[in-house]
Amino acid sequence: MLPDEILEQLNSKYPCRESQIQQLAALYNQAHIPSPSLLVAHGLTATGKSSIIRSYLELSSLPYAIANSRECITGRHLLERTVASCLDALDDYYDETIDRRPYARTENLSSLIVALGRMLEGRGKFVLVLDGVDKQREAPYTLLPALARFGESIPNLSIILITTLPIPLELHRPGTPHLHFPTYNRNSLLTILGRNPPQIFLQPPNEEHFPDYTPDIAAEDDAWLWGRFTATVYDALSRHTGRDVVSFRLAALRLWRPFVEPIVQGTFGTRDYSRLMVNRRALFQVEDSVLDRIIADNSILGTNINGANNSVVPTTPSTRRRVRTIAHDLPYYTTHLLIAAYLASYNPSRTDVTYFMKHADKRKNKRRAPSATAGVTKSKHRKISRHLLTPSPFPLDRLLAIFRSLLVESVPQVADLYTQIATLTSMRLLVRTGGVGSSDVLDPGAKWRVNFGWEYARSLGRGVNLEVGEYLVGGVD
Amino acid sequence: MDTKKCYVYAPLEQESRPSKRQRTSKSDPHAGLSERLKIYSKTWAEQEKKVQSTLEEADRATQGKIVDFVAANAPSEDVPRISIPTGLIVAGPSIASHGPYFERLGRGIRDVTNSSYVVLTSGESPNLKTFLKTLINKITSRVEDDDDEEDEIGRSVNSSVRGPKLLNFDLGHVQEWTSRNPVQSIVVAIQDSEAFNTAVLIEMVDLFYSWLDRLPFVLLFGIATSAESFEDRLLGKSLRYLDGQQFDVTQSDDIIEKLFRATIAHPDTEPHIGPNLCRRILERQKDHVQNTQDFVHGLKYAYMSHFYANHATIFLKYDAKFKDFSPDAFEAIRNLPSFRRYIEEKLEAGDTQSVRQLLSSDKFLFEVIEKLIVTVQNALSSLSIAAIVLTRIRESLGITPKVRLSNVWSRAASGELLDSPLLRETMLSIKKTPSDRLARLIDSLISLATEDFGLDAEQLQRELKTLVQDNAGSGPLRSQDDIRNESVRTTVVAQKVLLSKHKAALSEQDKAYSEIVARFYQRLESYFSSALVDPKTLLLYEILVYNLKSPHTEVFQPRPRLAIERALATPHDYLGCECCGNTPDRENTLAGTQPATAIVYQLYLESGAVINATDLWFAFHAIVSKDDEEDQSQTMYVMQMSTISNDTDHTRALFQRALAELKFLGLIKPSRKKADHVAKMMWKGL
Asked: Where is the Orc1-like AAA ATPase domain (chain A) (predicted)?
């Protein structure tokens, strides 16, 4: 394939990356013109680094191998993978079978350079791409500097490192060419997304009613509406939340179906953009579309909108708090254990006498006071409410003591209580924290901590008719 | 005292160990044990079958959905996958039953779809490398070998030419395996996602995503808390790679209720579980652990102990012959309290002849037992049926509060149901039922009962049908007790308000309907009063019902902490020796004769959060050497400063050992807050 054809094809496939593609083509064009021994291609996520380099090399008829650091668990794993993929690439390119016995082990960088030198000896130019090498797990310290100097001993090897940030210092070698992939700007993003607009009508409208609505017109409408829509999404949401092409596309696709719903229902025409926009403005006022969720829940967006149609105030995240529920009820004593743990974490231990002593005490009456006086005796220094801070660790016996004082009836000292604590620990509702005896489970000095928030504790308490706020020092709003 | 290690070696030379108690009677405690084992395995096998089918039935719906999800997410050629299909299985807080659940799920997935299914737990995956190794081993069912070993035949194309070998955590192994065994998808189930290290989960998702173009992964996460809290733990990037659905598993208490219905309350069950034990098992489920496994284990243990410990259970054998039983077995029957009661009743009735025969002739006794055991069994099963009937009535009439079968049954089994408000209330509301509900109720009762239990429900149903068909009015027929047929009149007489109730005039049809209701009511009442007997009054109750709570409690709800605390605080309870026996006036007295550790522990209980070691020693010394007259004249201080006698040396050694033992038990810890003090770590009674 001629270089110009390659450029044309790549440019049509990856728009707005002309300069990068041109630079690549200039550096790695013909087999007989030397290429730089090392190139660092850097850019933030979703800027087309890996795909463009891969596509270019595929089209350029150069022998090449790619090792992806993401799939390599250790540094040695990367080295082994590199050798294996180089061998595979050479086998493919020269259509021969290299005797692999000498390459059985690649323990370190020295053996990598020996192996590469041996397999490339007497051959033409070879490109090795190490993708995401700055994110390599358990990488040896000398990995990058050594890679930078591979070209000195193997002249026909040229390495491309793909990284997120430029790494001139880590290489310990001046004068390394860098190829920057900048993030896409607004126009580029709109161009990229505008290339394949989704459909407005999943089923084409009834032919009897709309005989002149041909697929061509439909496609034109799709493109027109999608273009305006993506511009709005970008200005309203993605500019502030996720400017990279992937999250922008996700957000736009999530909003698209609820957005065009009135058109599908026939309320508005396909070109009534401004009226549609006003009608569906609530979509752009909530953050649901830019949040990443495992469970795709389009019903939330839909119900939101339908509710907003009737009321003047749109539902924003501040008014509609996500309800956090535990799907399954915990057993009775387990619930109490959790509440006791919450109290032990958030009450200072010196107040325990006031809050949990069972016998009638004069001081006991003081504890209901704070809600009335809190506003008056506000100190000059604004204090952060306790329940917003990290939970403090407590010893196990304190948890058990509070647990017993919360319950009216007495609980036998059965082993089941400890089983429950162990269960809660493996559910990460209780966490063993560092301390003197944190390694030993049986050590009484071990400290514990809760791993859930106030709202969960309160809902737990309401489940067993216990108002947790009454026992909490300082009270809560 | 931290550094010193000391031993007090004082062998007792004069007194030998107490003589062992030996069984002197000639009877063999294990008589008929193998017979009873056989009966046990037969009965338990039946129960277990019921349990398994109930469990499978309970989560069939959810499992079906998950299997469909896996099948629907099989990769297709034309659509490239942009995210990993993920099922979030909210399985509830009963962690112990997750294992069997995922096992059953795996069976379902393997049966229906052509997938490879792997379950991974947090214990197997402390870090990413181990996680991957386990995963690869489980998928390829490969025996782990060292890197240096020679390859077996057919390992891979690469290794056949001895080229670079894949490291043992490389997913390339899985790729090789899938090329040889093509599967639709690789289902990786993370059993306890909460216990996993978050970093491992994130890296796993990242890695799987990057392999997704080559390996068709499907992830299933078992979640004990909620799907939202699981999402919160992952990075936004990981969430973008996952795309899934949530599956809710049936609540554990619903399953327990179903299991209860299938096992304990099942009319054909034999032997029955008594009300006390049953209540205990259910309460434990409610209060402490929600766990179907535990429920089944408790049941199994009850069966085992019943057949192991009760000699007379041998009579539960099917089609037993007289010669199968030894005279001992009959003797055991004669010793049962219920049998004694039976004899006494007979005596009072003046039936001395048969009493004599029952007591002297084994043959006669056998015949009586053979007959009686069937009637008692029938009585017990009709008791279960009555409980089910009552629950069914309440369900179909929609009476609140809802009472579960387990509750009704345990009341019935303890003989409390007949006079209970529960039954009265239910019967009263039957009187007021309109015709449409009554029809539904009778239908459901007919569908429930295999044999008619004296209600003659079908006849009632026929009559009701004809009556309803003739009914011209729009509403259902109402009985005379229905409150809508009553009206309240107020009359003011001499400035006092009088309320008077008046019955509205009933139509002919309503009258006829009221008559049907009254008949139904009467029959039901007589049925309940005949079926709801107190099982404790039945003969051979001890054989047919297992109601002992003692071994069950000790096995399933041990109290380790209480045992240690009690042993230390009141050593007499365990030692039972005379020297440190309890004085009648005071419960616990400190005495020098008690074990040194127990003395120090009791002193420890009296002190605050930090204890001065010297004070403790003085107190200890005062108690231990109380009996010695010579020491009493000396003050502590003098004694410490003076030449330490041999005896004090011994006491000090005992003290140090006691302290060391307390430290070993985790009760005290050296304190850095105060010099010469130890910190108290545990409080009694928690």
From this structure: 15-160
What pLDDT was estimated at residue B452? 55
Tell me which of 3.40.50.2300, 1.10.150.530, 1.20.120.450, 1.10.10.1080 is the CATH number of domain B560-680: 1.10.10.1080
Residues A238 and A267 in one domain: yes
Span A77-107, pLDDT tens digits: 999 999 999 999 999 998 888 888 888 888 8
pLDDT value for B588:
55
Percent of chain B with pLDDT over 70: 85
Residue of A nearest to B211 (CA): A71
A75: nearest CA partner in chain B = B167
Q: Which two tokens stand for residue B501?
A: 């109730």
- Give, for B116, the enclosing helix (H) or strand (E): strand B115-120
pTM for this structure?
0.81
Angle made by CA atoms B172, B176, B178, in degrees to the nearest 5: 115
Residues of chain B with CATH 1.10.10.1080: 560-680
More confident position, B202 or A205: B202
- Rounded to the nearest 5 percent, the helix, strand and coil shares of chain B are 55, 10, 35
Question: Could A325 and B287 be called an inter-chain contact, meaning their C-beta atoms sit closer than 8 Å?
Answer: no
Q: Is domain B60-145+164-249 classified as CATH 3.10.25.10?
A: no
Estimate the crossing angle of helix B457-470 against helix B508-531, to 10 degrees.
160
Cβ contact A205:A213 at 8 Å: yes
What is the SS3 assignment for B170-220?
A: CCHHHHHHHHHCCCCEEEEEECCHHHCCHHHHHHHHHHHHHHCCCCCEEEE
- Averaged pLDDT, A213-231: 88
pLDDT per position as a tens digit, A379-420: 556 677 777 888 888 988 899 999 998 888 888 888 888 888
Q: Cβ separation of B287 and A429 shorter than 8 Å?
A: no
For the segment B494-515, what is each residue's pLDDT rounded down to a tens digit? 778 777 776 667 777 778 888 8
Mutate to test the interface with A, among B288, B297, B664, B680 (most CBs of A within 10 A): B288
Q: Give dist(CA B46, CA B52) in Å, integer.
A: 10
Which pair of structure tokens corresponds to residue B470?
A: 């003739």
Determine contact, residues B135/A466, Cβ cutoff 8 Å.
no
Element spanning B680, H or E: strand B677-680
Q: Which of A375, A270, A73 is nearest to B136 (CA)?
A: A73
